[in-house]
Amino acid sequence: MKPNPAAATAAAIGGVDFTSGRYRLVQAASPASYAVQIDMRGMVPWEEWPMTPDASPVRVTLEYLNQRYIVQAGSGAAGLWNFEFRKRLAADSQPFDVIATRSAGWGDLPWLKLVAWAAFVAVTLSALLALVRQRSERRRAQELLRLGQVARLNTLGELAAGMAHELNQPLTAILANTQAAKRLLDDDPPELSTARDAMARAVEQARRASDVVGRMRRVVERPEVGGSLQAVDLQGTVRNALYLLEPECKRLGIQFALSGDALSVKADPVALEQIIHNLLTNALQALAQVPPSERALTIAMQPEHKLGVLTICDSGPGITADILPRIFEPFFTTRDGGLGLGLSLCESLATDMGGTLTATNAAQRGALFRLSLPLAEPA
Ligand code: ADP
Fold first, then answer.
1. Which of 42, 192, 210, 323 is least enclosed by beta carbons within 10 angstroms?
2. Which of 360, 350, 188, 181 is nearest to 272 (CA)?
3. Is the minimum distance from the CB of 314 to ligand 1 under 6 angstroms?
4. Is the beta carbon of 342 within 6 A of some atom in ligand 1?
5. Three-state SS sequence of 228-263
6. Is the CB of 340 under 6 A from ligand 1?
7. What is the average per-residue pLDDT within 121-142?
């Protein structure tokens, strides 16, 4: 019978204690017997061994049944965490379990690397955070700049629209008056006195236009609206505005009644003139919508406590309840080609001079505007 070396090896190992790492394998046979002395340490391929046997903290053992051979003792002391690697050697001649154990405690952790890694992560994170913060700051600054630009554009637009609105009327009047004067001078014989009147009106309107431009320039130069407040003759200003609108009143056949005493109010003369002119122009436009026989304009001035109050009441269609709350809104208009800036400008000017401007419907018919301004202190 052919001998079975594996069975013989197993049988032999089973019979010896190999904890010392040295044992003999004996094959008894006839006519000769064989014995092999095994030194387990010599079987370890130390050149390829992945650890330094004396310094490594890993403990490596070979185990068979209850016997254990220590290949590498391991220098590590017992720690908090224990790791174990176990593998059965597949060869029939070496039916051992290879067991590698490693115990680690706080002291075994690679603190230097950990600290370096934590520092690296912290620096990277804070750099990222700074970048994100810088970006959002930049976005906010850009947004503010954009808003500022929009606000400036809006203001400029409003100013330009306001100027167009304010200049349109005097320029139209200048054109009409000079054309009329030219016609009158072309007559044979020329109507010198009427032409002179027309030219005087044109001069007045040109002065008004120049005042408006001057005032707008002052507003641009000095942001606070209002100009210099001084004692202004309210009645004189109303009369002057009526004088400028006289041809239009005549054309529309408007009967107007002016009542009240001479009052001195604290105002910017050009701003006051602008308000009154706007209110009267609006009234004429409203009156143009009713039959000529029904067109009436009532202007009154009276002192009330420490205020000088001017009321301008027309017999036009009045202001419907849905329009009334919006009438002072910028760009609110019901007129074709209207800008809707006249009343909002008037209200701002009145407020800037310490006064108020309100709108209601008159008791009988039409709209009633009421301008209150502080009375000038007696000199
Ligand atoms: P605009 O004349 O360019 O429309 P305004 O600010 O002067 O702008 O007026 C705004 C609106 O107020 C007008 O479109 C009109 O509907 C209304 N309104 C102003 N004055 C009168 C008035 N006397 N009677 C009736 N409605 C008026």
1. 42
2. 350
3. yes
4. yes
5. CCEEEEHHHHHHHHHHHHHHHHHHHCCEEEEEECCC
6. yes
7. 91
Domain that holds residue 56: 10-108
Tokens of 122: 């912290």
Tokens 């109050």 locate to 309
Of 50, 85, 108, at which residue does a domain stop?
Answer: 108
Beta strands in the chain (DSSP E): 22-27, 34-39, 59-64, 67-72, 81-88, 97-104, 230-233, 255-260, 264-267, 296-304, 307-314, 356-361, 367-374
Average pLDDT over residues 351-376: 95
C-alpha of residue 283 to centroid of ligand 1, in Å = 8
Per-residue pLDDT of 290-348, as tens digits, reads 999 999 999 999 999 899 999 999 999 999 999 999 999 877 889 887 778 789 888 98
Whether residue 244 is found in the same domain as residue 379: yes
For helices 269-287 and 234-252, angle between their N-to-C axes, nearest 10 degrees: 30
Please name which of 282, 30, 290, 72 lies closest in space to residue 165, comparing C-alpha atoms.
282
Protein residue closest via CA to atom 1 of ligand 1: 340
Contacts of 174 (CB under 8 A, 6+ apart): 202, 205, 206, 209
Q: Is 313 in the pocket of ligand 1 (CB under 6 A)?
A: no
- Ligand 1 in contact with 333 (CB < 6 A)? yes
Global confidence as pTM: 0.51
Closest CA to 169 of 257, 276, 68: 276
